[in-house]
Amino acid sequence: MHNNEDCPCGSKINFSQCCEKYLTDKIKAETAEQLMRSRYSAYVTENESYLKNTWHEDTRPEKIDFDPEIKWIRLNIKNTEQGGVNDKQGIIEFIATYKINGRAHQLHETSRFTRNQGDWIYLEGDYPDRGTMTQKNKQST
Question: What are the strands, taking DSSP E only, across 3-137?
Fold first, then answer.
């Protein structure tokens, strides 16, 4: 990912001015949505350390396996509940579009975020067609 490219999170802002500052730990996400967008960018750039550092210890995997067949295409935030600067919890529903062998697929998730020592972290996600899943049975954004 080049610094002068648009951020993968879909903000239409330069990567260097958007998610890169979170991925390099120069700044912490102030909202659950910022964290969600930066985690999506971390999947695009295969930044395992950032994903693990922003994942609740109770649901965090030991290792994140990036599938070389997956090409992340687009992030669409559908809904947010709480998750603001002064909130302790937040929920974000999103659809992440990706391609495998040129064929488009979608990951539809409602993610739950919480604060850990003041910092936003990813807790777990619900998948509308499959119910609640934690890392023990599904990796997530």
Answer: 70-82, 89-100, 103-116, 119-127, 131-133
